[in-house]
Write a structure and sequence with these properties.
It contains twelve helices and eight strands. By secondary structure, the chain is of the alpha/beta class. The chain has one domain: Rossmann fold. 48% of the residues are buried. It binds adenosine-5'-diphosphate (ADP) and magnesium ion.
Length: 256
């Protein structure tokens, strides 16, 4: 049975996509069977996994509209070692097209049931909003991984996300829990970041992952080559951190 995780944070530019593709690649490196689902119409996780969003025959959009199965729409990225259920601009229309559909927030969950035995991990890259697309992700998942920068306003945004997760847990998905907060783009030389990091630990305790992802230019360069940093330059500091994070995740789910 696949463990399904959303990478979510309603703020943009906090490192969701970078976390999704690098964790996927890190897990693939240690022999895990991974499906990466791109739920963001921007399609960055798709492109960043070496799949051209403009020439995809089928995407997560077709899956949500029930005109394709996950097994039909997912493609294998040879370079990355995991499967990609991609997204492009078409996905932005899904919100409107599903507006009158009953149980529309469960479309992805139903679709993923088909491939449950095919994968060890399904990682869902969520858009920067608490939209119907994100809701589909949260309804499908066993848990949420929240990447966050250790900045003052990061804590404020977290309250909204935590409340949404609580509501989804209460009303739609009893399985859902926060797996953990992942500190990303971390720079220990910045005093404020260390302070916020300490506050996070004091407040969320065990829910803060041990792994810290440093700010590292190789991670930012990799997408322009259509690759996760972990594949583009495995020896880079940022890539090494994500490889460590993959190991931490495997350890965590054994305790779940
Ligand atoms: P989101 O998906 O939340 O919008 P991204 O993963 O796209 O965020 O990251 C936003 C930007 O920050 C991208 O340009 C990405 O390459 C860069 N970035 C993400 N993580 C790191 C990091 N650890 N070090 C340096 N740059 C990073
Ligand atoms: Mg993104």
């Amino acid at each position: 049975m696949a463990k399904i995780f959303c990478i979510a944070n309603q703020k943009g530019g906090v490192g969701k996509t970078t976390t999704t593709v690098n964790l996927a690649a890190g897990l693939a490196r240690i022999g895990q069977r991974v499906l990466m689902v791109d739920l963001d119409p921007q399609g960055n996780a798709t492109m960043g996994s070496g799949v051209d969003k403009r020439s995809m025959a089928l995407s997560v959009y077709d899956v949500l509209l029930e005109s394709a199965l996950v097994s039909e729409a997912a493609v294998y990225s040879e370079k990355c070692g995991y499967h990609v259920l991609g997204a492009n601009r078409e996905l932005a229309g899904a919100e409107v097209e599903l507006v009158d559909v009953e149980r529309r927030e469960r479309r992805l969950k139903q679709a993923l049931a088909e491939v449950d035995v095919e994968y060890d991990f399904v990682l869902i890259d969520c858009p920067p909003s608490l939209s119907m697309l994100t809701l589909n992700g949260l309804c499908s998942a066993h848990g949420v991984i929240v990447p966050m920068q250790c900045e003052y306003f990061a804590l404020e945004g977290l309250t909204d996300l935590v409340n949404t997760i609580k509501q989804v847990h209460a009303n739609l998905n009893k399985d859902l829990q926060i797996i953990g907060l992942l500190r990303v783009m971390f720079d220990p030389r910045i005093t404020l970041q260390s302070q916020v990091s300490d506050q996070l630990k004091a407040h969320f305790g065990e829910k803060v992952f041990d792994t810290v992802i440093p700010r590292n230019v190789r991670l930012a360069e990799a997408p322009s080559y259509g690759l996760p940093g972990v594949v583009f330059d495995p020896s880079a500091r940022g890539s090494q951190a994500f490889i460590g994070f993959a190991a931490e995740m495997v350890e965590r789910i054994q305790k779940m």
